[in-house]
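Retro notes - structure team

What went well: the batch runner handled both jobs without manual restarts.
What didn't: labels got mixed up in the shared folder, which is why I'm recording both outputs here explicitly, each with its sequence directly above its tokens.

Job 1
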Amino acid sequence: MQVQSPGEKTGKILNREIQAKIGQQLRAVYNDVVDQGVPDRFADLLSRLDAEPNNQPSDKETQE
């Protein structure tokens, strides 16, 4: 069984100019998200979870 790409299924393929524009727009959106950083409440939660000894995986869990 061969897997077809979306362009092969519809017969339509985006040209390089359109692909580049989509890439620019995606980067702009995701750069804004990355620049926002992690909210303090999430950073605090992660710190507390890392500090709890019960959250460490057992040897058995790490081997699976």
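Job 2
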Amino acid sequence: MNKKIIALAVGSAIGAFGASAAFAQSNVTLSGSLNFNYGMFNNGNTGLNLTNNNGATGPQTRGSYDALSNQESQWAIAGEEKLDGGMTAFFLCSTSMDIVGGSAANMCARNSYIGLKGGFGSINAGNYDTPAKRMTALYDPFPISAAMGQGAQMWNATASNTNNTGTPASFSRRQQNLVTYDTPTFNGVDASFAWSSTNEASAGYNTATLRKPRMWSAMVNYTNGPLGLGVAYENHTNYNPAATAASTAYNGGDDTMLSLAAGYKVSDALRLSGIWNSMKYGTVNAAGADMSVKTWGLYADWNVTGPYRVRAGYSVQNSTSGSFGAGAQASYTTIGSWTANGGAGDTGAQKIHLEGVQALSKRTEVGLTYAQVTNDRYSNITIGTGGAASTGYGEKSTFMGMLIRHKF
């Protein structure tokens, strides 16, 4: 009798423990995407030599060659757990996946965070795209990086997995040490606000790091049926965007970006969208010089018929303005990817993107791609990763190739 009572008690305890353990388990999922291009890069001639007022350095070319390139492939583990009081804990760990062996990456080096959500919205901390970057991604059918991307032209380089001192000129950022608050959706309106902690200050506060760098970013997006409208604003404080020697020339300043976006679904098969950015780099050096740039892009995503889809884009980086880089041609300099010449002009670039794909299933598509960057006389925006490291000033660069994408 006693043995039966003991067995029953043990069984009940095990059952209770099992139920408790099941209640505590997270709902974990694995997902990802593989995106690869193979094609021909051509980065034009050597182009203009900015230190030589007589112009071009010669007719030699930078080469035409084939390359296989990874385009933001990744795998991700995500999970969440229901908590008392209507709260949910959640996490995301995204990692680059380059099966062609082009690069290695640390675990969770792409969008990754841990947070809590409930009726108040959600808050998370980690390595995450800024609200400004996430807003514009809603209206851009192309990636930010690689041959079909436009990070260098539209947002002055792509800053992936970076802190407050890394790629300081870029306004397309996956920011480390970021705290993000997302509001609940209310009548089609979503909003987000994020700020970076000043981790770098504790390790580098000295004569070469005059002030603590920090960024904050905010966006509001409205969706109503076929219509989408978005606005974002981002501020970088003490980022030293021109990499000026801080101890002698950079005394701190604010760099800002305003982004506007709109999209309209003309039919179930066709969506048109556009993005406009205005960026200003304030107090770049001790003389108080500044630089401003406006960029814009127009896009179409058209499901032509059945499994066939066409994506097209045309984006423009206007010439820079402001006092930074003023003087003779040999004095021209850069902030990030953009040439500063005191507003003398001819520092813009234009890009065409074309992509035709066939869906082989709900998760796999193949297609053909074409991209072309045309630089003004004093601009050298490159076509994207996978080709040459740089393009000559005033040169045109192109990419023509094939793609394959698979999601899981």
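One thing worth noting from job 2: The first strand starts at residue 27 and ends at 42.
We'll revisit the folder naming next retro.
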